Structure formats: structure tokens, C-alpha cells
Amino acid sequence: MADMVDNHNDDEGPDLGRTYHSGPVIMRGPMIPEADANAGLLSSGGDTDWLHMDPWRVLRIQAEFVDGFGALAELGPAAAIFGSARTSREDPNYAAARKMGGDLAKAGMAVITGGGPGIMEAANKGAAEVGGKSVGLGIELPMEQGLNRWVNLGITFRYFFVRKMMFMKYSSGIIVCPGGFGTLDEMFEVLTLVQTHKAPSMPIVLFDRAYWQGLFDWISDTVKQRGMISELDPDLVIRTDDPDEAVQAILRHRA
Questions:
Q1: pLDDT in tens, 68-81
Q2: Where would one find the signal peptide in this protein (predicted)?
């Protein structure tokens, strides 16, 4: 509840006048709002800028966490498959992602993707085709067309960081197929959290060795040699061209 009190201060210094209390927040002088919060609550019209202010945004963020936790809490063992939305259905990596999604689902694991086209669609399709749990964690973007039709459990997020939290919380391993900035962001997020022990250790499988070779040459030859990172755990990152090897790396960790 917001109210006004007299500000009695015997210390030397300028008198800022009254103190305005709004819950735990105090305001004095020019910081006191012109309109009372309670009056605004009961008003039927007026300015709606408050809908876009940070305190209201916090409630939307909180709601996304609640929705995500509620939808995924009983998912069971799961693995995430990341990769480009631009991968065509004729690309060999599309077929590989479809196989990996299907094989994980056959082994009783849910398959979590970003829910979009390309690699994500392929992995969801593989899981759905064998009757598995095919999960899509979408994101609101102007160019996105929504979740692909192979998702049988889906949720769309407004905030990237909430979505990434769901990937980390409910995945016990990830397979990273070729992709762009979004894929790299997700991969380095997992690497950072695992390397700093902010998340449990999990297998991180990079599929298509040739695609990732240049990146890891730079990490080894430049980043590590200049002392910017410590040695990568050799059991943490697995690079392979074999869909079966990728799936087995995930399943070994689950066991």
C-alpha cells in the first residue's frame, strides 16, 4: 500500500520533503509519482505504458517459467538436438537428425528441439514416427512460422533465456548438428555451464566433424594457447559423423 509520511530528519543537509512508501520502495522529492498507485489500479482508462515497464515484464517472465516447469516436469529422461532451421530435407544431416531422434525415442528418451524447421523438424519427426515424446520449445520471432507438425508436446517462449533454462534443466545430453548463431549460442551455453559446474556434467555430441573442425582448431590453437580457457574435458565433447555413435554417447550417460 502506498502512503505519505512527514520526513523528520534532524541531520544537516537539504530537506527532501515527504517520504512516499510504495511497498518496500521509498521515494522522496521529485521521485514521488503524481498519481497514486491504488487510484491507478481502480481507474478504468488512462495510460497503459505500465504494461511495458520492467516490473510487469518480471511477471511475464515468471509466468513463462511456471508454464515451462509445469509442461515438462514429468517428461522423464530426455536429450536435446540442436541445429539449423535452414537445413533442407534433402540434406544428409536432415536424415541423420531424423534417425537420431527416432533411435533416442526407441530407447525411451524424450527428444527436445527448438521446434522449428530444418534439423529441429527432422529430430522431432524421427521421435514422433516411432511413438516417442517429441518436444518443441519454440521462440517468438518475426520470421518464425510456429512449431513444426511433428511436435507432440510444445510450448512457445517469449524470452530466449527462459527457453534455454528449459533445455538445460530437462536434458541429460545434447547433440549439436551444424547450425548458425542460435545453435552456437546454445552449444556454448551448455559448455559454459558444465565447465563451471553450474550444471551437471552431460555428453555434448557435435555431429558432422568437418563442420566443427575449424571452430575447435581455433579454440585449441588460439584460445587455449593464449590461456583464455582450461583444458576441455575429453569425455565432455564428442565429435562424430556416425548417428549411432552420437545416440550411444547419450544413452551411456543415462545408464
A1: 999 999 999 999 99
A2: none
Q: Which one-letter amino acid corresponds to residue 42? A: L
Q: How far apart are CA 243 and CA 135, in angstroms?
A: 20
**Angle at 57 (CA atoms; ends 21, 180), nearest 5 degrees:** 150
Looking at this protein, which amino acid is placed at residue 182?
G
Which residue is associated with the grid cell 590461456?
227
CA distances from 31 to 19, 92, 206 (A): 10, 61, 53
In SS3 terms, the chain reads as: CEEEECCCCCCCCCCCCCEEEECCEEEEHHHCCCCCHHHHHHCCCCCCHHHHCHHHHHHHHHHHHHHHHHHHCCCCCEEEEECCCCCCCCCHHHHHHHHHHHHHHHCCCEEEECCCCCHHHHHHHHHHHCCCCEEEEEECCCCCCCCCCCCCEEEEECCHHHHHHHHHHHCCCEEECCCCHHHHHHHHHHHHHHHCCCCCCCCEEEECHHHHHHHHHHHHHHHHCCCCCCCCCCCCEEEECCHHHHHHHHHHHHC
Share of the chain above pLDDT 70, in %: 80
Instruction: Return mean pLDDT, the chain.
Output: 85
Other C-beta atoms within 10 Å of 233: how many?
Answer: 12
Mean pLDDT of 220-248: 87
Mean pLDDT for 89-111 is 98
